[in-house]
Amino acid sequence: MHSWLAPTNQLGFLASALAGADITTRAIGVCVWIGAIAGVLVAAWLVWTIFVGRRDPLTGLGLVFAVMVVSGPVVQPWYVLWAALPLAASALSRRARTAVVATSATVAMLLSAASLVDVGDPGRADRQDQH
């Protein structure tokens, strides 16, 4: 069973649907690898910006966590807190704090609603019937 909560899995489901073939598991696998590589590259860049002094360390920590959650193969609703807490603590302006609060509330609500839906792996049922 593949989760709809992770953006990398969503891309795999989309690729499978667009291809019109039973490639869900393979498409998700490819998207997870692409997400992992992209996540490491973006996280390394963020760490570099912290190292050279262009980004506040607490903000950078929150952004690195956000990148890992978005590019990772699994997302649980509480993972959003890993990014939201350091970002909220580092938000100096009212506008930035409002953006962090609104984003985390929206994501938490969307993930909570999405976790109630069990779509399984559409391609998997077809393969089990053939055996």
Automatic annotation (TrEMBL):
<protein>
    <recommendedName>
        <fullName>DUF2029 domain-containing protein</fullName>
    </recommendedName>
</protein>
<dbReference type="GO" id="GO:0016757">
    <property type="term" value="F:glycosyltransferase activity"/>
</dbReference>
<keyword id="KW-0812">Transmembrane</keyword>
<keyword id="KW-1133">Transmembrane helix</keyword>
<dbReference type="GO" id="GO:0016020">
    <property type="term" value="C:membrane"/>
</dbReference>
<feature type="transmembrane region" description="Helical">
    <location>
        <begin position="27"/>
        <end position="51"/>
    </location>
</feature>
<feature type="transmembrane region" description="Helical">
    <location>
        <begin position="58"/>
        <end position="79"/>
    </location>
</feature>
<comment type="similarity">
    <text>Belongs to the MptA/B family.</text>
</comment>
<feature type="transmembrane region" description="Helical">
    <location>
        <begin position="99"/>
        <end position="117"/>
    </location>
</feature>
<keyword id="KW-0328">Glycosyltransferase</keyword>
<keyword id="KW-0808">Transferase</keyword>
<keyword id="KW-0472">Membrane</keyword>
<dbReference type="InterPro" id="IPR049829">
    <property type="entry name" value="MptA/B-like"/>
</dbReference>
